Amino acid sequence: MSEPSPPGLFDGILARGAVREAVSDGAWVQAMLDVEGALARAQARAGLLAAEDAQAITRACDLAVFDVAALGREAAETGNPVPPLVRALSAAVAHPAGGRVHWGATSQDVLDTATMLVATRALGWLLKDLLAAADAAAGLAEVHRGSLMAGRTLLQQALPITFGLKAAGWLSGLDDAAARLEEVRRYRLAAQLGGAAGTLASLGAHGPAVLDYLAEELGLAAPRIPWHTVRTRTAELACALGEAAGALGKPGRDITLLAQTEIGEVREGVASRGGSSTLPQKHNPIAAVSAVACAMRAPGLVATLLSCMLHEHERAAGAWHAEWRPLSELLMAVGSAGAWMRDCLEHLEVDPRRMRANLDRTGGLLLAERVATALAPALGRLLAQEVVAAACTEAAATRRQLGEVLKTRREVLAHVTAADVDELLDPTGYLGSAAAFVDRALEAHAARPRKG
Amino acid sequence: MSEPSPPGLFDGILARGAVREAVSDGAWVQAMLDVEGALARAQARAGLLAAEDAQAITRACDLAVFDVAALGREAAETGNPVPPLVRALSAAVAHPAGGRVHWGATSQDVLDTATMLVATRALGWLLKDLLAAADAAAGLAEVHRGSLMAGRTLLQQALPITFGLKAAGWLSGLDDAAARLEEVRRYRLAAQLGGAAGTLASLGAHGPAVLDYLAEELGLAAPRIPWHTVRTRTAELACALGEAAGALGKPGRDITLLAQTEIGEVREGVASRGGSSTLPQKHNPIAAVSAVACAMRAPGLVATLLSCMLHEHERAAGAWHAEWRPLSELLMAVGSAGAWMRDCLEHLEVDPRRMRANLDRTGGLLLAERVATALAPALGRLLAQEVVAAACTEAAATRRQLGEVLKTRREVLAHVTAADVDELLDPTGYLGSAAAFVDRALEAHAARPRKG
Amino acid sequence: MSEPSPPGLFDGILARGAVREAVSDGAWVQAMLDVEGALARAQARAGLLAAEDAQAITRACDLAVFDVAALGREAAETGNPVPPLVRALSAAVAHPAGGRVHWGATSQDVLDTATMLVATRALGWLLKDLLAAADAAAGLAEVHRGSLMAGRTLLQQALPITFGLKAAGWLSGLDDAAARLEEVRRYRLAAQLGGAAGTLASLGAHGPAVLDYLAEELGLAAPRIPWHTVRTRTAELACALGEAAGALGKPGRDITLLAQTEIGEVREGVASRGGSSTLPQKHNPIAAVSAVACAMRAPGLVATLLSCMLHEHERAAGAWHAEWRPLSELLMAVGSAGAWMRDCLEHLEVDPRRMRANLDRTGGLLLAERVATALAPALGRLLAQEVVAAACTEAAATRRQLGEVLKTRREVLAHVTAADVDELLDPTGYLGSAAAFVDRALEAHAARPRKG
Amino acid sequence: MSEPSPPGLFDGILARGAVREAVSDGAWVQAMLDVEGALARAQARAGLLAAEDAQAITRACDLAVFDVAALGREAAETGNPVPPLVRALSAAVAHPAGGRVHWGATSQDVLDTATMLVATRALGWLLKDLLAAADAAAGLAEVHRGSLMAGRTLLQQALPITFGLKAAGWLSGLDDAAARLEEVRRYRLAAQLGGAAGTLASLGAHGPAVLDYLAEELGLAAPRIPWHTVRTRTAELACALGEAAGALGKPGRDITLLAQTEIGEVREGVASRGGSSTLPQKHNPIAAVSAVACAMRAPGLVATLLSCMLHEHERAAGAWHAEWRPLSELLMAVGSAGAWMRDCLEHLEVDPRRMRANLDRTGGLLLAERVATALAPALGRLLAQEVVAAACTEAAATRRQLGEVLKTRREVLAHVTAADVDELLDPTGYLGSAAAFVDRALEAHAARPRKG
Questions:
Q1: Of A169, A116, A216, A132, nearest to A450 (Cα)?
Q2: Does residue B447 belong to the interface with chain C, where contact is any CB pair within 8 Å?
Q3: What ipTM describes this predicted complex?
Q4: Catalytic residues of A, which ones?
């Protein structure tokens, strides 16, 4: 029962990495059992239960003795899997403690708290991959601080940048997403305990104490008030995952574009991967493609979870049940995106010569802005742009280098020398703050808190 | 390998009915094998393959001999599960036909066509439940054609209607959804065959013929052109499922509202179901709640599938892979909603006495519009409404019946008699076209094409 | 009041074309007035109203005399703009017909029917652009039936195709979307009339007749039963728009990719457009980019409209109001995508020489599949692929043409001659059914019904 | 030009409050002008521009002299409204400073930074309403700390709670949402400045300094690196708004349910509002309905903004443009929800007698859990539940009070006295920690930081 489930048909691609197991049915049942055990211990600490009864209940909370499929089948009778689990657990505990299983709790307490446990565990794996991906991006930013390439806007070559700057941008997105996920994990994943309608009526005056102990036992945050129908916590969890998906998908999309046959500036470095079933010459960027695919699944799932926030009264008539599967799917999709992007960035092969070659292909056109900027003090910004644009048009039409054309223009040479033109058109001299921004991103990454 | 998989922990609620198995990994692999077999037979019909080779391939397409988990693992190497399947299938076929497995096809051909097969089979089950739910709604409309109840707008009692009219509304939505799903199933679920880039290059001039035969072998529509990156078909499938979700969720929401303790006009009739884990007195409308929950999952999944339509060039770099799981999830969610709503409507217990009691609770206020309408020819519509509104306010403030108050008003009695007032306030006489609309909905339902 | 509103700040890009005006506030008010007028005429046809009263009401339904901003302000008091409109219209009609304005109808009847009118008019404009875009795609498919280019899968060059085939794919998507929109427009955009709770109580036995006449007066479909809380019609409208967005976005994405500086196979042909504010050399594909942007807005709006389907009882407590703006936004976004894509395709400059040059850049690697296919009968498919893949690797590593390498391989020359190799590597001979598929798409396009 | 625009037809409902004006076209243009002015001053502080030139530019940044509709029209030529704005602004500044307008910046810098300004201003208004709504909820929680009512799960009466506890739940959600929005507003709304490709090439080594000064001038956060294609900031903004929508919609849904004719426990207190166009007796909860409607719009818009995160390279080919309108719509929808919910809660009329009457209607059934809990030590939890459930069934079937039935049962009286039964069934004694949770929520609300 407790052995890891085999991967599903699409799981190698869409549920890659440790997160798949972390959101498996077994993981959910274990989390529910952990809640029941912790609840007993919390009540023991509050003096509501004998310590040995709490221990007996805790001992019985062993996934291996429960039949997940049977729970699934019986769940339909009550609308959730907790009642059959409580029955089975009560039976598994020696009397009299068996009668104290689930004391004061309602199904949603167990399932909501288990959700937070599943999430905190899955986030542990996701954060590991996300940070490894960020480290890899940092490595690329460092190494390629000076690797010139074309910056591209609206998919048109625009101005020289460095590959280091591009990687630093990826890094900043991954760091943002990790920071937000860690924040949510630490402060917003909370235990839930309210009993049948949120009053913890059957615990008398001990409710808040038991709630706080429960949170402590499970390593979750303690809420100020039961949150069974106030879904800001699931919303923030979903949203942080949605943000991470986007931060992971961005480098994925860039890499698929950089790996295009005609661009060829990067290549995925895992040799065994990326062959085509029919085209022997192909080397597909499987990791980047898969990361994009996983990332694309997130927004719809986040929307579902947000649209589930309007819970009716003290337990929603549908909106609660509708959360369970999308949350698992979302953790799995983003976890998978993280595993792929880590793999992708850790093995990315970068070709700076090809980058430079692509940059040079446009014969200086990319430095047009710089020439315009240099002429602007004399001509005004708008006229300078017009003059340079005309030269660009002529260079493109006559297939000459921009420098050549500029040197034929009187309105240019009136203000700069031919040597100036050559210098202006040298891309290595027109990188502005690229290196400074790389440094700032690397410093922020280095300064982020690490465990151990 | 081919035995049905046990239900998952939440499947009893969120993947109810036959659709779960119809979108299982086993069903997907079987569909892919069906495509490979049909492709061989199509090529045989086109004269490209010996009939016995096609038969040999077809015979080998037996789910029982394939290891789904292994396919899942290997899928990660090439980015989809078709290459390992083709390898395994080729090995399973006796030489020389083994070398002709998957001839001329690319992975996406097999997976896209398998998607359509999985969908057409899953829709078969879904439509069965959807039509049974519609039949049950038709039965309720028929039986309760005259069962008076309060019509409620913005959750306020508004005007008398019949429960039959309400059920006829549900029926019309279910019939609309079924009609659209059947249309999509028949005309839009098509075979896909294009080869590596959509030209079927390796089939020479035989491409269109093989494509048409393939569609015929599988009982799918034949497309005029390969649609691997033109996703209008998956979009229409997703949308028809999204529409069905809404049509199934609407009665679900109504039933949760009608079953409220304070309303009590309907009750789910499956005795074994709906107990609470902690509240012995409760009888929860599990089926309606679950149908709502399943329906709420659909819009986000539809959005994901629509946002995947912008495939790049001849095979998308992520947007294709991102479709697989949402489509399975969507079929499962809507299939489950259908199974629940069928169950719910087939066993719904209706309490016409409680309906009438709730209607009478407001002391005639619901007929206020009628009185205003009767006075309008004499007073004008706006003044008539004001007069009646004032009487309503007085009746509410003094806790008297509206009729009593109206009979004290001179501006009323100037135009109608006291007996007129009594008649105007009798709800059975103010149902307008309710019965006629029930008949029109029932006729339309009866006229819909049925198989067999 | 009735003059066209000036474009908003982003409207030139995100609300391009005639659809913007078609969903303006003025258009909405006009549609509501059209409904009130048609309702009066329908009642006259049913004998419920004098013909001259209906004419008086119809005459008063003139947008120019209503103050839209005032209606907007007063709408907040009753939760929708119909009550203030009815008050203003009643006042504008000469007594006694003024008292018969809006007779038997409720606010939702007017607003729902007006929604359908707004939609049918907006779809008229959208379909015009969509069909013009399809015609332009057909023209490109026709002209470039033989223009060789690289087919690209996962953004890697895969196999030769023609630009005609690519355009035929775009065409088939646009035709699908147009067909679905026309179907929805004709059969699913229906009048709504139910009165306060769906019974048309104040019309006595005349309800169905008035409903049918109303539909006829407005050129809308007649529903079998009021659909105020059965939202399958808005769902189908939204979904057809979502499908159209995807069909329009697909060529948009392809064109942004084909226009990349390093690819340069197409270029947008409107000379005045696409300059950069800072980069004089750039020529941005503004139309394609804008079409993609507009298309990307659709899925979220469709999801909102689908998630609004669970209306409560006889009038939803929020889900109805939540539909109004998303539907306008969706019509505007897709309308704008249509206007941009028409413009884009009608002026697209195609560079077949650049296409061929890009294709030749890979030194024959793209024909690898063909060589493998040719060797497969002798070697078996899998071995043939391995042999060719090895040659591809060597060619890439040594920067030689694939043909050269193949001719050095004994296992190749054992089965084909050197001349065969040259022929196999000629892309013009390996286009399979590309031309046939182009023809099929063009025939289907030509066969679609046209008006006039 | 700068006068407030009149409300649109649906704005009274869907764009209520100050946020509408805060996201108007005028507000957007003003924000863009503010950026251009601040950029000039930042460059002056960095020594790149004469102080008087910066002042001249700042002075010219006056919304009143710009023609928004003209900018909208010209925006289509370049794909965004910044180039025409820069042209107009340059012309409006006296030479020579005119040539220094927009120096070093690209369109996206101005538009992204303006987006953050628009957002920070709109959030100011939204937070004001959100906090007023929270204060009102706190007031209700305080006043109704002891107002007994039925807790309802799955819309069935479950256990007694207090209205104070329900309001405290609303409060905690509103406080969560406000805290998150304030966090995003303070730390994540940042200036953007990168120049054409993110290097600030034309500013030489002064890039980071100018960026930091720009942020300071505008009161925005300073990013460590340009974020033009790293959209974690827009994602967090969108998500915080989505969370707020859910937190606002939850009380809205509860209030529509509590205001049902048959429940009648609350009523919206604005007398002028909520009449029906046809039903004189109705009093619709317009504010709650409208808040729900606005809240329902958010999830789809959040999904759109998340799905726009995969920007290509250094400027997205569509995904950037696709953000503009959804962000405005989202600010407007959530702002409107906030304005409605503030209004709703500040004027909510609560009827504690009706609450108590509804609670008593079930004859003690709601205390069934308590009796079961009292019997559990003696009978065990499961058996105790069975015994009580049987008594509930009998009480319901025979229409007797639960207490009466329990006192006839031997297995009950074996463990508790008849007086115990009466005490157990008194709801005022079974509220558990309701008051304690109210206090905790109020303390947390009181402790939140306030300005001034």
A1: A132
A2: no
A3: 0.95
A4: 276, 315
